[in-house]
Design a protein that fits this description.
about 25% helix
Length: about 300
């Protein structure tokens, strides 16, 4: 591992997206970035913060059938999704420049050529450049909304604190995907997600220990009131609990200990200073892709495009 700067100041934003509203979601993200400007080197937002994770909706899909009402809702979500590099996207790049910070944010990505949507995460650098990661395999009925990644599988961003990368939500349950990031030497593993179940906390502690990296668990708040009026699936919304996603955002160190405890049910900014000597120090006794590996017995081949 190359030498790294000792301290990384992080601001982890647990917030409620403005559901189905691209402009308002971006404005809310920009407001948060302005709030933490000068206080953080790395700012992290949840999965699909733009334009929100539509928990409980199925857009009229059932086995072998679709509905026109569901298609209307899907088109509303499609129109609120973002083409990487377009004007809305550039606002986030400009915010990274103003904040002089790295910014990670989840968004529904609309392909610039085809009609496919992707569940994506962008990491912007302080000079406004960025890399986009598309979710390899949408989970369950997510597959009727977003496609499998066709590129941008495992991009990592070089930072003064070592390489950082992201896997989105249940991608972290894909053991080989985790190893693909470990092989790139990541020191900070960012997980934008909507997992507010207690079992997830055990998972992310394990991953931090396994990868000997900081795990940034970035979740959101989704309330029943988050949904806009006029959707055709109002009954599905009405049947949800008042808080459909409770958050639970936190940061875990390479020993598996909480740097910050999970925060539930509120919008907040979680601040922390990460000691970036730990990822290397922890590898004295365990390095999953180094001295604690057997490449002569086990080999991972990654088609990384």
């Amino acid at each position: 591992m190359r030498d790294v700067e000792r301290i990384c100041k992080i601001a982890l934003v647990q917030a409620e997206p403005v559901m189905f509203d691209k402009k308002a979601s971006i404005e809310k993200a920009l407001d948060y970035i302005d709030k933490v400007c000068g206080k953080a080197d790395l700012i992290v937002f949840p999965e699909l913060f733009i334009p929100g994770y539509p928990i409980g909706l199925n857009f009229g899909f059932s086995m072998g059938k679709r509905t026109e009402a569901g298609r209307e809702d899907w088109m509303r979500y499609y129109n609120a999704s973002v083409v990487a590099g377009d004007d809305e996207f550039k606002q986030l790049a400009e915010a990274a420049i103003r904040a002089k910070a790295f910014i990670s944010i989840g968004f529904s990505e609309r392909d610039a050529v085809t009609g496919t949507l992707y569940n994506s995460n962008a990491i912007f650098e302080p000079d406004g450049t960025y890399k986009v990661h598309r979710k390899l395999k949408p989970t369950g009925s997510e597959r009727v909304v977003w496609g499998d990644a066709n590129k941008d599988y495992f991009p990592v961003t070089e930072t003064p604190w070592g390489p950082i990368g992201s896997l989105i939500c249940w991608e972290s349950y894909m053991p080989l995907a985790r190893v693909a990031l470990y092989q790139k030497g990541i020191t900070i593993y960012i997980s934008p997600n909507t997992n507010d179940n207690p079992e997830w906390q055990a998972t992310i502690q394990h991953i931090a220990i396994e990868g000997k990296c900081y795990f940034v668990n970035s979740d959101m708040i989704v309330r029943k009131s988050s949904y806009p009026s006029g959707l055709n699936e109002q009954q599905a919304i009405d049947e949800q609990p008042e808080i459909g996603c409770r958050g639970g955002s936190c940061i875990i160190d390479p020993y598996g200990h909480y740097v910050t405890e999970p925060v539930w049910d509120v919008e907040t900014i979680i601040y922390a200073e990460l000691d970036m000597t730990l990822p290397a120090a922890c590898k004295m006794e365990h390095d999953a892709v180094g001295h604690y590996a057997r490449p002569d017995v086990l080999e991972l081949i990654v088609k990384d495009i």
